[in-house]
Amino acid sequence: MWLLKQKDETTFWQPGNHPEEIITQPFFLQKMNYIHSNPVRAGIVDREEAYIYSSARDFYNMKGLLDLTYL
Question: For residue 57, what are the domain limits?
Fold first, then answer.
């Protein structure tokens, strides 16, 4: 978690971050796939489901570290 002190204010996000509201399923899936592929692009693992800290594991019928609830 990032807590940065800027201009007498504490912020949560890193400078340069541009958050976007997720309001459609296609946009959610695009962002989820991007997040799941980050460890692969970083060269940490060769498959997204291999990263122990990723929720991608749940989509490959593998146990993740957290229990996910699907709505």
Answer: 23-71
Determine whether 28 is exposed, middle or buried from the number of CB atoms within 10 Å of its CB (0-12, 13-18, 19+): exposed
pLDDT of the residue at 1 = 46
Give the three-class secondary structure for 29: helix
Of 33, 30, 4, nearest to 17 by C-alpha is 4
* CA–CA separation, 2 and 38 (whole Å): 19
The answer to whether position 40 is within a domain reads: yes
Which residues neighbour 31 within 8 Å (Cβ) at sequence distance 6 or greater? Answer: 22
Rounded to two decimals, the pTM is 0.68
| CA 14 – CA 17 distance, rounded (Å) | 6
